[in-house]
Request: fold
Amino acid sequence: MAGHSPSVSVKDVAAAAGVSIGTVSNVLNRPDRVAAPTRDRVERAMADLGFVRNESARSLRAGSTRALAYVMLDAGNPFFTDVAEGIERAAEHAGLSLFLCNSGGRARREATHVEHLEQQRVQGLLITPVDPESRTLDAIAARGMPLVIVDRIRKGHQFCSVAVDDVLGGRLAVEHLIDQGHRRVALIGGPLSIGQVADRFEGARAAWAEARLPPDDLVVIVVETLTVAEGRHAGERLAGLPSGRRPTAAFCANDLVALGLLQQATAAGLRVPDQLAIVGYDDIEFAAAAAVPLTSVRQPRQELGRVASALVLDEASNPGHQHQQMIFTPELVARASTLG
Amino acid sequence: MAGHSPSVSVKDVAAAAGVSIGTVSNVLNRPDRVAAPTRDRVERAMADLGFVRNESARSLRAGSTRALAYVMLDAGNPFFTDVAEGIERAAEHAGLSLFLCNSGGRARREATHVEHLEQQRVQGLLITPVDPESRTLDAIAARGMPLVIVDRIRKGHQFCSVAVDDVLGGRLAVEHLIDQGHRRVALIGGPLSIGQVADRFEGARAAWAEARLPPDDLVVIVVETLTVAEGRHAGERLAGLPSGRRPTAAFCANDLVALGLLQQATAAGLRVPDQLAIVGYDDIEFAAAAAVPLTSVRQPRQELGRVASALVLDEASNPGHQHQQMIFTPELVARASTLG
DNA sequence: TTGTACGCGTTATCAT
DNA sequence: ATGATAACGCGTACAA
Reply:
């Protein structure tokens, strides 16, 4: 029950239990090869001394760590924490720890995290990168670190990735709005350099074109970041339009933007969905929880995490591993924000 | 630019650069003691071979890790990710990595995470425990691991903690409602075994008593978990009451419950705040972003994380460290959900 | 069944 | 300024 800072090692345990360090190690790693009485004595000694196995030494010797890591783009966005939850479950099932690191969208911090993680020799690295095209990722993979890109696409087949079909998602959203009778729709999102945003808009345009509606009636409002605040700003711009020119519906590139828009619209006295219908993206819990429950395009978030984990573990342990790009199918969840 | 799975070590770099491993180590740790030309040669070799310093070996030798860890109670709750953000900043500033682990409220998973982290010899452990009274925490601290309890209180002074004065928070919320003229108020939260919930309600009752209002007009609705879903259920119960007996205001033990309540109330046709005023707790971003922006009791979340980090680092490096229990002061942020 | 001894990759000390 | 070498704590052949 005692034990102090100078941490106690197998050697100390061995001395206290009157056995050799080899036996202590066996108690730790192959308990069956140790006679029960000896084992008890050793375990008692470990408890008494407060022995804590040194993972640095263990993994140095063993050559591999018992941990996975996920570098998140934004821990404040429930979408990513749900993905993380899926990874967490998979890691737990595989007997591994999961370290979550948050880049907060900052490339610098992301690089630091990745560097440390690589030095830690984690078994595998899952990442939603700030910039999916960054060559840094190739360098990491080239050094042999199992790597899976989460919720982003990378051209080529340098590594595994899991993502959702954003073009389809955009299409589903706008088809739904057209079905509901809308003929003038706003697309709100940005920056357009984010592949996902571009894809969602592309799908939206495709649906619009197929319905033979005039391109000019699909109004793009570009925002700087996918946040609630930007959603509010977009709402102000929208509310400022003369009611004749104002879209009757908006498709937002994610739920945060949609929630901001919903709030601003409500504040400006626009009734949702009567005067303004809103579709979000991601279907985070807060979308369903909004005062006017939000119609949203749902992505299989936990599934994304589960599959990403499976891929990274395969790459870590299967010599015949083949990189795969998994694309999941999104699904529209219609709620009050579009259902009159 | 090459480099393969069998990871390259200082030895390989030394050979490639035609120097001794001591010199390579010096390039890594005290570059100034190495002549510029030699240094360049070594650095070139490191890059060519794709050398990645092995942190296990480094920390085994050095005896300490370059990382902090925060074991979160619920990564899906924005409150905790904000706290984590504060810790992240502090860690970054101290040149440390931060590993976020999520227990998701499960004691079992929490124990596993803590065990691994202790084995990793992280420099310090921050934790919002599932059960603040658990003796496991004492055991960890007894073994010499710097430990700080975040957002929970533990009787006694066995370790550092940072928390917010929940009694005061509850008082602020209810005083505000009384100020607004409410004379029949619901307290929604639970389970009561959570110290925070109990404290917030205690503060609420104190404010009520000081205003000399009849105790029976402070109605407690106990919920099973502090989630949006439970908030909705509470809303149903509330809406089911005859309007004479129905409270005109509700104080929810956190924002998730408040958002659920807001949604249900809206769906049931209750106007907020006219027929039902709502106060939440935590002031997460989604509280301000709600269609009817939520009045809430704000906790200094990032500050909580920053101070917790400072405490754990002090404990890790200052031999004269004294355990401290920091209590922060909450603040009421009044918004439309209570302002007629 | 238990003990001995070596090596994992790095750092730091001490020579040179 | 650079090189040789002994730890750090653990796991694992191999020997007993």
About this structure: Chain B touches chain A through 61 residues (CB under 8 Å). The two ends of chain B are 66 Å apart (CA to CA).
